[in-house]
Amino acid sequence: MAANAELLNKIAKMITDGIVPGSIARLFVVHFRTGEVKPVIDSVYRFDDVYSAYDKLMTGHARGKVVIEVV
After folding, report:
1. Rounded CA gap, 25 and 28, in Å?
2. How far apart, in whole angstroms, are the C-alpha atoms of residue 8 and residue 25?
3. pLDDT in tens, 3-55
4. How far is it, in rounded angstroms, from Cα 7 to Cα 15?
5. DSSP assignment of 6-47
6. Which of 8, 23, 28, 31 places its Cα 20 to 30 Å from the Cα of 17?
7. d(CA 42, CA 63)
8. Is residue 4 a contact partner of residue 28, using CB atoms and an 8 Å limit?
9. Is residue 1 over pLDDT 60?
């Protein structure tokens, strides 16, 4: 559940920063909270391993999103 709260906080920051239009983001948050939208993450890579993430995408075998951590 902590991961969900963290994701919602990131979405809220994107709305505040003007990256995502508020109306679209609010709609997403509603569906996310009800469980209608569930992100499927195949793998997570550190930023300094971005080439491995790219290789994973190019194989065509990713069964979800390939995420790059930029922290």
Report:
1. 5
2. 10
3. 667 777 777 777 777 777 777 777 777 877 888 777 788 999 999 999 999 99
4. 12
5. HHHHHHHHHHHTTSS-HHHHHHHHHHHHHTS----EEEEEEG
6. 31
7. 6
8. no
9. no
Tell me what pLDDT residue 48 has.
94
The structure tokens listed for 39 are 């992100």
Distances (CA, A) of 2 to 6, 9, 69: 6, 11, 17
Contacts of 67 (CB under 8 A, 6+ apart): 41, 43, 44, 45, 53
The angle subtended at Cα 7 by Cα 11 and Cα 59, nearest 5°, is: 100
The length of the chain, given as a count of residues:
71
